[in-house]
Amino acid sequence: MAESSEECRRLPASASADELKRELQRRVNSIIEDADYSIEDTDEAMHCLSALKELKVRPTPPLEYLCPLSHQLMKDPVVLASGQTYDRLFIEKWLNKGSRTCPETKEVLPHSDLIPNLLMRKLISLWCNDHGIELPDKEEQGIIPESDRYHFNSLLDTLSSNDDVLEKMKAAKLVCILTKRFPPLRAFFEEDSVAVTKLLEPLMSGNVNDHPKLQEDLITTVMNISLHDPNKKLIATNPIVIPLLVESLKFGTLETRSNSTAALCTLSSLESNKCIIMKAGALEPLVKLLDEGPLLAMKDAAAAIVSLGVVKENRSIAVFEGAVKVIMKKITDRIPVDELLVLLAMLSSYDKPMSRW
Length: 357
Prior knowledge:
This is RING-type E3 ubiquitin transferase. The protein is mostly helical and 357 residues long.
């Protein structure tokens, strides 16, 4: 019965009426045939009934209001050169993959320009208003308007090609602010394979500490864009990023070290990135920040080491770098960081000391 209960919970929100009816039938049969039926069976039967009721009263949009690619209500309908209308987000993804045909008609497109279908958007908006449905804004949908895309790319070009340090610093500050306040812009780095390299170019020429504020803004931007899941592998596998994060963690300002730690912690959530981060020598400066940093930086450092310690071999390296000694000192000093106890428990399970990478 427990297994059946899990099956119902796994039904997607978009489950069809037939799927819900089949699950309901299984639940009702269990209740009728088993004298010792579970509460879960009754709960899930009621859940299926409620979902069926919602399907019955939920308004169904006209087919022409649905995007042919996503089969969802269009938020930003645009017309392709073939004359077909699509939701901008999904047709742009289609075109960005290199496709030069219309998904519906299969004809070759003479150009990839997208023209807003204002009439369709107005009709969809009226239908939503009539049925009490809120139509998300373009920004909420994750779409980057073309004008914003152009401006953002021009800032990256300034960072990668302009010799004026002051201009680079202005551009770095803007990029940092934009990637923090407007999450859709983080996806820009997923779409442009050289965007990360452009971003960090100022840190590759000369001493990264020559301009601490510039370094701080660029490292903070890496932290911002690493929050976008598809960027995690892209960032870590770029050969310049992890070494720069580790160097900034060693020699940057306290703010830069903290943000570099936060970026490494976020990136290390992806299993394949843990080895890259370890081989770059991140553990030693992480342990040092754990010892020297303020409370928030200590939390980030401890969380990063815990994340890396998921790989068992990394725990002995953390011990070798002095993590246990630092943790015991902080606990003795009554530093209120719960992550320290989690880290101590993890490190206590290591097998034997190992040499560094």
